Amino acid sequence: MSAEILLRSGRIRTLAGASASLEGEAGAGRVDEAMLVRGDRIVATGTDAEMRALAAADAQVVDLAGRTVLPGFIDAHTHVELTAMSRHFWIDVRGESRADILGRIRAHAAATEPGTWAIYQATFGADLPTLDELDAAAPRHPVAVRWSMHKFIVNRAALDVSGVDESTVPAPGMRLQRDDAGRLNGVIEEGWDLLAAPVPAEEELRPALAETLASLFLSHGVTTVHEIVASRAGAGALCDIAETQGPRIGLNYTVAPGHQALVDRVPDASLLGIATRRPRARAWVQGLKIFMDGGRDGAFRSNDGGRDVLAHDPAERWGLLTRLYPTLVDELATAARLGIRVMTHAIGDLSQEIAVSAVEQVRARHPELDLRMRIEHFFNESTGTRRLERLVAAGGIAVPNPGFVFAEPDDPARRQPQGATKYALATLRRIQGVIPGNSDTAGAQPFTTNPWFTMQCMVLLRNRSGLEITPGEQVDLAAALRAFTVDAAWATGQEDEKGSLEPGKLADFSVIDADPFGVDLDRLDTIGTVATVIGGAVAFGELP
């Protein structure tokens, strides 16, 4: 077969020249008719005649028949391994009632040997059974039911086998909830590592990871994912899969304390080869993740429903702060000196202030460095723009999660925190210019792995009930497309290789069954992928 592929008679949306300063379809950059690929690189785009003149006589010719070609989508933050666990090792109860979940638990307990673990994946805000209800349904089986990776509930059998009791002192960033009498109520925040739940071996994980990558990512045109590593076994399996059947995978290791932390301190990162990563490889170590606080309930916030938390609540309820400001400054400065990219998880306004101030300090110490230090979840909630403006001025990047809008409650009084603006994407685009596309799912919302779903969230800002959450803060389709292409490439430091279809860049692209600018915005998530191509080779579907 020829080393060249000529795609002709199509709509090649190159995203070259894409700009936040341009309105409407113009913001998505240049559109061409044909594209020539040689090996794993793009040679050129242009008219059919121009590309035919450049192509070798034996080039494979693909007649697109008017179909649209897009740059391969880039997911800048996701949890492939945990999503695979929820699909292949745990029991899916998303959308089920409390009674139905209890029925599933009783049936599983009746059909398995005592002592057998049962883990259930629910979703944000689900009405889950209580500790007593779990005990009654499965008194001799360890049971855990997950709202998300940040919060879950277990029965007494799970606590007992894990060695967790009233005297247990959790590590920084974790919380064991208690009832009014001070007894454990089974709800654990940020503490999955406390459980003695079974962990699959690498050979067990590999097929589950391969299926998840194929069905949730490749099938939607995703050619690069940035994984938050959950285990060394998972990292090894993901590297093997990336080298043989894609997509490209950048690995991000969590620094202790934090979920599935595999790095004890930032200087240890050099031992993982992060400073000498291979960005052109199919799998590489991208950088580090640092947790500043917990999830929605464990966020380090200054107020709750108008109440001054720091002044009126005990420290136990302040939010799950993992480290102090000087510690984060030292970690970020060390990473900067080593050339390591860092993403800092910070949800609450107080943890975000710590993160922004730390980035400012590192910028002051190293003004010569191109830091691009990310703050994950920044601007999911906001009460103004001053902190964002400071972050951007210091060279940092806000990375919100627009797909989370789907889970926002209808009642504004139930949204966290009360009074905050949620997902102010138009404001973010105006100040920062980029919105790095990502799914950030660990099983609670696996559908966000489809970039078209998250782009639909960006242009509509509606929850699962169809309620518009923040009127006026939607972005247009061109901005949504940039989010998962040029913006995500820039946020991960790979803009020279990916994000647009331009000469010399990697031949990572997808062929889709409809031009997005001809599809109703509330049907974007129905766009289908005809083929996903990575480095010039088909990884999903087939070229027409």
What strand line-up does the widest sheet have? 8-15-16-17-20-21-23
Task: Evaluate the radius of gyration.
Answer: 23 Å
Q: How would you sum up the global shape?
A: globular
**CATH homology superfamily name of one domain:** Urease, subunit C, domain 1
Portion of residues in beta strands equals 15-25%
Task: Just give the CATH class of one domain.
Answer: Mainly Beta
Content-based structural category: alpha/beta
Unreliable spans are none
Cα-to-Cα separation, first versus last residue? 16 Å
CATH T-level fold name of one domain: Urease, subunit C, domain 1
Percent range for helical residues?
25-40%
Quaternary form: single chain
Number of discrete helical segments? 14
Tally of extended strands?
27
Which architecture of one domain does the CATH hierarchy give at level 2? Roll
Q: Summarize model confidence as the mean pLDDT.
A: 95
Largest sheet: 7 strands, parallel
